[in-house]
Amino acid sequence: MESSGLSAAISSIEVTCGYEGAYGGIATLHKLNLRPSATAMEADSAAGITSVEKNYTKSPAQIRGIWERLDTTLFPYQPYYAEENRAFYNPDDETPIIVYAKICRLLEEAETAFGRTGACSEFVNYVNGISVPAIDLLLCSYYAEFIADPESYEAYNHFVRAQIVHNGFISNQVKMSVKNPKKYAAKTIDGTTVNLFENESDRIARWNEVDRIAEHLALNVTPFNIICAAADNAISRYKQHEANGDIKLMIITNREIQAIMDDLARHNLDDQHMSEYIALMRLYEPIKNTCRAILQFDFNASAPYVALAQDESIRKP
Length: 317
Fold this sequence. Notes:
Number of helices: 12
Number of domains: 2
Order of helices and strands: HHHHHHEEEHHEEEHHHH
Distance between the termini: 76 Å
Strand content: 5-15%
Strand order of the largest sheet: 1-4
Number of strands: 6
Largest sheet: 2 strands, parallel
């Protein structure tokens, strides 16, 4: 074990989350400090990097050693180093970034006054003519990285994005645009047929379980000061976006701050931590109020004018 706080905090995760993989679960994966296999080393140049990069606590080799052994019932895109799977484990890949921005726009639409549910229709080609929702690529990237290095600043920030996306689907603010989500072959809203990698209900159950594990790590393993640093950075970014007049990025960043503040509030707050939390809340409150006003303004500006009916006949029984 390389970090003193992780061993004790992570020891209860199997009991809490019921997770047991081929190597005994998340706690065991961290304790074993596994390295990538020879096959992974040959296929993935990053698998041999043993130096720890900025804003991480584990090296790329250590992170990939965990990726390679994740339970396939929770992370079915294995082996991670296969060409068709590698993008699913890279949070900085172009597709996750684009999908995250798309979902944030759909959430913004849903959160305006009288907002409506948005549909995420993007699918990516997988293998053998199978298509999978792009949301899988995004969530796999964020959750896998965070589970492998839950004490790091970079991975925690990606977990925040995973929370936002996952909650958007669970709350039905965002939906997959398939007519029959219970079938492996599903028709999209525009009538096209896609062959899904798994049943949609199984997919949702899988991500619910992964989120439960990751949330446990965030509240029990991620250091309080890392979460505070993420909040502080997000607040600074919000102020910069505000100065630039970039409303879209203000709304996205506000959503990230809210998720971070929720994580802080659920930590075991002693007197010192409570003081830090209150100080951050004072900085956040005006941001939250400003974003409420922006969302209302966006709705008022875009809502069509509807004339009141003058025909008395419509009032007849």
